[in-house]
Specification:
The protein has a domain at 11-54. The protein is 59% helix and 0% strand. It has two helices and no strands. The radius of gyration is 20 Å and the shape is elongated.
């Protein structure tokens, strides 16, 4: 189910959004925002994976014996 979200912003932001919609061939501002949120979530996941890899490389990890160890 979809819901509507109303936001307030300066006209300069609205102009930037309109330009992004045109430049990237989005059908609407909603499509732009949905894509932006997905990209943000993807970036956070990548950062988490990179942090985990860094911890693993420095020996900061725990061997799991079962799925219960995840909790």
């Amino acid at each position: 189910m979809r819901t509507t979200l109303n936001i307030s912003m300066p006209q300069s932001f609205r102009d930037k959004i309109n330009n992004l919609i045109k430049e990237n061939n989005y059908a609407s501002a909603s499509e732009l925002f949905r894509d932006s949120i997905r990209a943000f979530e993807d970036q956070k996941l990548i950062e988490s994976i990179m942090e985990s890899e860094k911890d693993f490389a420095t020996g900061k990890f725990k061997t799991l014996k079962s799925l219960k160890d995840l909790m």
